Amino acid sequence: MKVILFLCLSCILTVGRAQDDDYVVNNKYFPDKFMFGCATASYQGAWDEDGKGQNIWDNLTHTLSRTAYRKIRTMETWPCYVKENWVLTTIGFSISWSGKYLPTGFPYKINEAGVQYYRNFIKELKDNGIEPLVTIFHWDTPQGLHEVGGWLSEFIVDYYAEYARIVFQLFGDDVKYWLTFNEPKQTCQQGYGSGEKAPFVQSHGLGEYICTHILLKAHAKAWHIYDDEFRPTQNGLVGITIDTPWFEPNTTSDEDLEASERQLQFEFGWYANPIFNGDYPEIMKTRIANRSALEGFQTSRLPEFTQEEIDFINGTFDYLGLNHYSTYMVSAMPEPEIGDPSWEKDTGIAVFQDPSWEGSASDWVKVTPWGMRKILKWVKETYNNPAIIITENGISDNGTLSEDLDDESFRSHYYKYYLSYLRDAMIEDGVNVFGYTVWSLMDNFEWTRGYTEKFGLYQVDFSSGNRTRTPKKSATYYSKVISTRCLVDTCEEE
Ligand SMILES: *[C@@H]1O[C@H](CO)[C@@H](O)[C@H](O)[C@H]1NC(C)=O
Ligand SMILES: *[C@@H]1O[C@H](CO)[C@@H](O)[C@H](O)[C@H]1NC(C)=O
Ligand SMILES: *[C@@H]1O[C@H](CO)[C@@H](O)[C@H](O)[C@H]1NC(C)=O
Ligand SMILES: *[C@@H]1O[C@H](CO)[C@@H](O)[C@H](O)[C@H]1NC(C)=O
Ligand SMILES: *[C@@H]1O[C@H](CO)[C@@H](O)[C@H](O)[C@H]1NC(C)=O
Ligand SMILES: *[C@@H]1O[C@H](CO)[C@@H](O)[C@H](O)[C@H]1NC(C)=O
Prior knowledge:
CATH architecture: Alpha-Beta Barrel
Bound molecules: 2-acetamido-2-deoxy-beta-D-glucopyranose
Pfam families: Glyco_hydro_1
Enzyme class: hydrolase
CATH superfamily: Glycosidases
Distance between the termini: 23 Å
Protein name: beta-glucosidase
Number of helices: 16
Active site: 392 (nucleophile)
Largest sheet: 8 strands, parallel, barrel
Order of helices and strands: HHEHHEHEHHEHHEEHHHEEHEHEHEEEH
InterPro entries: GH, Glyco_hydro_1, Glyco_hydro_1_AS
CATH topology: TIM Barrel
CATH class: Alpha Beta
Radius of gyration: 22 Å
């Protein structure tokens, strides 16, 4: 086994994509009950202008100068999959905290027309045999809550919990799969640490830890509310979606193996470990405490949970949503110098991608499908085999070029290989994966990248009045995968 691993490592390093050439795509049927679908997010598609309140992304994108990055009005996303008559078994979408039905973000004002909008939408999905997979929070903090501290204020825990309760009350009879947060690392590390995403707070090595500490309590509180008040009658499941790449050790040295594990703990364990095991990973606790002391802080920059909080957060999941796109290489490096703190220095690891890997319009997405199997196996082994749904996986093209429609060797290839390694993980490693939703159904607004990176199975002509949608070839491929439950021309039973 070890020898094979060594050989593979060197071939990744030297020939990149070539690894795919000898790889045989999995030809075993996916199980009947496996959920296939598409993912979307409230803010990135439909623009609920009428009666919708402002959130931190509205505020940000409306102040940006480059039009390519400004949010424009798009069509409602949902008629598409009904009209196209796909056999999707699930569709992922998020509810907007300050959306039509809850314009201020606070429950004192509920807009019945907005409630009806979501009810109709959910009913339409169910009438078409599509299971809604609903994310309660996908980055769109109401502007009003941001202005009193947002995710740096403990008060948001109760406001978020109240919002979650309203959503369970209003829609929970028809929704069985809930996700409290999508990619909390993007909210906290990018929103309050590096400051690359809304609300653009730059507080390296401090803000992201405070945000995470508060967000984890909000997650746990929503889970408990569901568990105590709604589960007995609604009988659904509540999870959280955490994103992570796979981190491949650069060499097989003990230091690089440790670097891979440490990076996974800093990216994924930071959120998963408190929820699955009750507290932050030990390696984060000791490294951040050590560095904080050397920097002259009186206490660790990583806040501590009380035992009561640990007991409250520990075990607050029914399943895990995993967003996975790509892989990075990691290698050990000398301890970063003490100076201004940062999350990157706290990890103390060199992270890079192999230039030979096939790229995409997004600099962070390289075609590395073998990473899918590795991350699934790692999650299974590290967190005691949870039920997993891949909630996002996909690749971007540059835009509205007609060539982008012909994406058979690009996006179809990506999906085929990622799904194949996912199926391998289920069969060979016994990982409990029960579903997969691609990112994304349609080209949409990619946050700070605006309309420059297109992940859709459908191309959207944003310059046409009716935002004309055209299926890319990958839409046909994915649709066939869903209807045949098979990645290749013919499949066999497991
Ligand atoms: C964004 O919010 C700030 C207050 O935080 C406000 O002064 C500003 O007008 C808002 N900008 C836009 C474009 O809405
Ligand atoms: C990765 O490993 C190779 C040897 O296989 C070495 O030459 C290179 O310097 C390493 N990269 C880093 C960033 O450590
Ligand atoms: C979390 O719960 C598990 C299972 O009940 C228990 O074994 C573990 O010790 C708890 N974690 C902490 C940090 O208390
Ligand atoms: C933390 O500091 C102690 C004492 O300086 C040291 O022994 C230990 O190895 C450090 N741990 C980590 C994870 O850096
Ligand atoms: C996007 O365009 C750049 C050049 O502008 C090119 O290098 C890259 O290959 C393109 N990516 C895709 C996925 O087409
Ligand atoms: C709207 O879409 C139709 C195709 O469904 C197309 O023929 C028409 O030109 C589009 N209109 C505009 C304004 O883009």
